[in-house]
Design a protein that fits this description.
Bound molecules: alpha-L-rhamnopyranose
Distance between the termini: 23 Å
Number of strands: 15
Strand order of the largest sheet: 3-2-4-5-6-14
Oligomer: single chain
Number of helices: 10
Helix content: 25-40%
Shape: elongated
CATH architecture of the largest domain: 3-Layer(aba) Sandwich
Largest sheet: 6 strands, parallel
Structural class: alpha/beta
Radius of gyration: 20 Å
Order of helices and strands: HEEHEHEHEEHEHEHEHEHEHEEEE
Length: 358
């Protein structure tokens, strides 16, 4: 992990601010060393020296296809699968609703994929079919948005959940100038990742340094551009004193920034959260957005392919402490609950935005 973190920092260029609290390492939740054998596959023993298999069929199932974030994520996966001399495939629904991925998982089982890499739209709705996949000896790697840990082998987390939630609270506070009303514009109400980050944010907001901030509403744009745009508009109409919209989704933050940039709220209401530099650039340049954060989504897709290949080759089983190599990203260690953390998030500002192109 340390090595990959250093590499990520180097790639992120000198002026990118690394958020201190988002250190490496798995979550600190329950220790579970049996994640690798849960859900139907026979308990395996890891052989770190096993050779990586070539020709592996590795399929990506993002939350939804028509999201620029998913495209960047899976582009990294495609690169890695090529390096691994495997067969890459991407399938998925056009909306991020809870059960929209189930039929795709069933098809991937029929197609006898070796690895399914999935960003779960709901932690539980995908579970029965993911466990059927595992019974059919398909390895399941979640990335971006986790499924229940009872139905996957490994979760590739973009940064620690705590680190992301803390950074969202910190940015909201900065943009509010330390006091006043803030609102959250999230993705879908069932999204595992956004809900986990919002939970951390709420805990953060109880701290004395945030006592003057008031979270007035959590709105859901369902990772749909139009709905997110309308929800942003609705928040500003309903809460005339609102100072900040913090959006922990690349779809939501871009839609909210677009709305504010061409409205009378520009300069009065701040937009922050998690965004793609390429989508946010114009709103940073026109002064609508002063700061937001993210990681490089391509690296998540890339890391997930290497984790899947290491699983399918028997190098790892998903148990805590096992290590595997992830090509250009270096070596990773599996943390508690089968979680692998990519690295810390980065902050983007007018000063550094032009150094990032994703
Ligand atoms: C959206 C999706 C994705 C999330 C990013 C930050 O693109 O909801 O799951 O990780 O935002």
């Amino acid at each position: 992990m340390l090595r990959s973190r250093r590499q990520l920092l180097a790639a992120a260029a000198a002026s990118a601010l690394v958020l201190g609290s988002a250190a490496c390492g798995g979550t600190t939740k329950n220790n579970s060393s049996d994640t690798g054998s849960a859900g139907g596959q026979a308990a395996a023993t890891a052989d770190p020296n096993a050779q990586l298999k070539t020709g592996l069929k590795i399929a990506y199932l993002p939350k939804q296809l028509n999201n620029p974030y998913s495209d960047v994520e899976t582009s990294g996966g495609e690169v890695a699968v090529k390096e691994l001399q495997g067969e890459y495939k991407k399938v998925g629904p056009n909306d991020a609703s809870a059960s929209s991925q189930v039929s795709y998982i069933n098809t991937l089982i029929q197609q006898q994929e070796n690895v399914i890499v999935v960003a779960a739209n709901d932690p539980n709705a995908v579970c029965p079919s993911l466990n059927q996949a595992r019974q059919a000896k398909i390895h399941v790697v979640t990335f971006d948005s986790d499924a229940s840990k009872a139905c996957r082998d490994i979760f590739i987390n973009q940064a620690t959940t705590e680190g992301i939630g803390q950074s969202l609270a910190k940015m909201a506070n900065e943009q509010a100038g330390g006091s006043g009303q803030i609102a959250i514009l999230s993705a879908t109400p069932n999204a595992t990742n956004q809900n986990a980050w919002i939970d951390v944010m709420k805990t953060e907001l109880k701290k004395p340094e945030y006592s003057k901030l008031q979270l007035v509403k959590i709105a859901y744009g369902n990772d749909d551009d139009q709905k997110s745009f309308q929800e942003a508009q609705g928040l500003l109409q309903s809460y005339p004193k609102l100072k900040v919209i913090v959006s922990p989704t690349t779809v939501g933050i871009a839609a909210a920034a677009r709305y504010v940039s061409s409205s009378s709220y520009k300069g009065k209401v701040q937009i922050t959260g998690l965004g793609l530099p390429n989508q946010m650039r114009e709103y940073v340049k026109d002064g609508t957005v002063k700061k937001f954060a993210l990681w490089n989504p391509a690296d998540i897709g890339y890391l997930a392919a290497y984790a899947g290949a290491a699983l399918a080759s028997g190098q790892i089983t998903g148990a805590q402490g096992e290590k595997f190599k992830a090509g250009k990203l270096g070596e990773y260690t599996i943390g508690a609950d089968g979680e692998v953390v990519l690295g810390p998030p980065l902050e983007f500002t007018p000063a550094n935005i032009d150094q990032f192109h994703f």
